[in-house]
DNA sequence: TAGATTGTTAATCGATTAACAATC
DNA sequence: TAGATTGTTAATCGATTAACAATC
């Protein structure tokens, strides 16, 4: 009976953490020291209890009655939980519009993500430097991933290439894959996959809108 | 007692539909007429029963024992359910890297999305034409949205501008907002919001990876 | 008929919400 | 003390999984 933690954070809860973090950092800028769970809840239109449950799973210190939670301490706890404090380095494959967009996004520094190398099979792109990150030919994927110990692979290729690229990344020792292609990737079970799929996200919006419009 | 449909599709189920659709279209290309639920399930690594439940909620004809589901009919049903058959036109605001990536993505035609106009406050971008879509100044947002009856707004601006842009889109008559900024948007309750948030998606991956690495 | 496939009903699991007790 | 806030336990809701019955 190895119950280690009464509070386990739900997947949905993890998704709320970046929003908490953003709000907390705003408060920190304003110099606030403590915040009640109710204030966080209000800013995100969710229930207080949910915030408390999430924080209970993540926070190293309990909240203080009549006062709330320490802003600084919560920020540190959330960043630790999310792994933002051990700055992950990543390889990006597919330097198209989307790939370039990700490479140019400076906000990632706040999320513990550092795109250390990019790869593309187009010789015209190889050798270019985008936002301080060099583009290498596909042939050097394995060599560079291993050498620089890159643990995250970002796939921004067209769908037909995604599985092949995924396999190459896995062979190169990558432990987690952030997949932007509309494909269900097959990976060994010790490799994590996170899909960021425009098609899926839009499907949700489109179906809701279609339903609303039909009702009118 | 207005029970209209025994089968209501879950949110998670809606998210699976685009993957079903993609697989079915592949089968269609190969000329297959019928497919059993088990085959769809296998291609996505999920349970048969789940596929059947999802299809039951969406499909206009039941599956045939020993045969499976009609591929053509399923494709039509899913596209109808997702609203892909009534081709939504959208306004995109924020022509940065990400905005350009979305504008250039030709795959959207398959998802019933047509980005009809783009807007940016940078005069250098105004007047440009990206992938057949013109960039207009922000001042003309309301006029063009109303005139072209654009129902979807896509926000690809930096986070600080997102709420203001959102308000402008709502005033311009938009009914649904696809938000790529890391902000919780506040909207009237008859306006739909779908967040596509890189920070959230990456948080999930990063936290799982951090946990895995800690265990080692 | 036997077997592949469908569809339904019940059981489990996970996440949210509500009700309440505890604390400074 | 009263009241604001926390934390916990129980109830509800929603989604997945399992078990089984129905059909060609």
Number of helices of chain A: 8
Specify the overall morphology of chain A: globular
Low-confidence stretches of chain A: none
The mean pLDDT of chain A is: 93
Tell me about the biggest sheet of chain A?
7 strands, mixed
Amount of helix of chain A: 40-55%
**Strand order within the widest beta sheet of chain A:** 5-6-4-3-7-8-9
- The Rg value of chain A, from CA coordinates, equals 20 Å
Number of E-state strands of chain A: 9
Keywords:
alpha/beta; Arc Repressor Mutant, subunit A; seven-stranded mixed beta sheet; DNA-binding; 44% helix; globular; 216 residues; homodimer; 2 domains; Rossmann fold
What do these coordinates show?
The structure is a homodimer of 216-residue chains. Chain A has two domains: 11-82, Winged helix-like DNA-binding domain superfamily/Winged helix DNA-binding domain (Arc Repressor Mutant, subunit A); 88-200, NAD(P)-binding Rossmann-like Domain (Rossmann fold), CATH 3.40.50. Chain A is an alpha/beta fold. Chain A starts with 10 loop residues before the first helix and ends with a helix. Chain A has helices at 11-29, 37-44, 48-58, 71-82, 97-104, 141-147, 159-171, 198-215; strands at 34-35, 69-70, 88-93, 113-120, 129-130, 133-137, 152-155, 176-179, 192-195. Chain A has eight helices and nine strands. The longest helix of chain A is centred in the N-terminal third of the chain and has 19 residues, at 11-29. Chains A and B meet through helix 1, helix 5 and helix 8 of A and helix 1, helix 5 and helix 8 of B. Chain B binds a DNA duplex (24 and 24 nucleotides) through helix 1 and helix 3.
């Amino acid at each position: 009976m190895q119950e280690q933690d009464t509070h386990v954070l739900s997947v949905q809860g993890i998704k709320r953490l970046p929003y908490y973090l953003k709000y907390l950092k705003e408060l920190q800028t304003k110099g606030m020291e403590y915040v009640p769970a109710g204030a966080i809840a209000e800013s995100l239109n969710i229930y207080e209890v949910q915030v408390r449950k999430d924080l209970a799973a993540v926070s190293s210190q309990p909240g203080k009655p009549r006062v709330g939670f320490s802003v600084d301490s919560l920020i540190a706890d959330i960043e630790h939980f999310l792994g933002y404090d051990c700055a992950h380095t990543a390889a990006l494959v597919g330097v198209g519009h989307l790939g370039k967009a990700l490479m140019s996004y400076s906000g990632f520094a706040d999320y513990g993500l550092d795109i250390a190398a990019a790869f593309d099979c187009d010789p015209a792109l190889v050798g270019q430097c985008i936002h301080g990150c060099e583009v290498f030919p596909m042939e050097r994927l394995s060599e560079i991933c291993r050498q620089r110990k890159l643990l995250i692979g970002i796939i921004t290729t067209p769908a037909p290439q995604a599985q092949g690229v995924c396999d190459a990344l896995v062979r190169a020792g990558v432990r987690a894959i952030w997949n932007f292609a509309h494909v269900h990737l097959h990976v060994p079970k010790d490799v994590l996959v996170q899909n960021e799929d425009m098609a899926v996200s839009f499907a949700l919006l489109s179906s809701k809108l279609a339903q609303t419009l039909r009702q009118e």
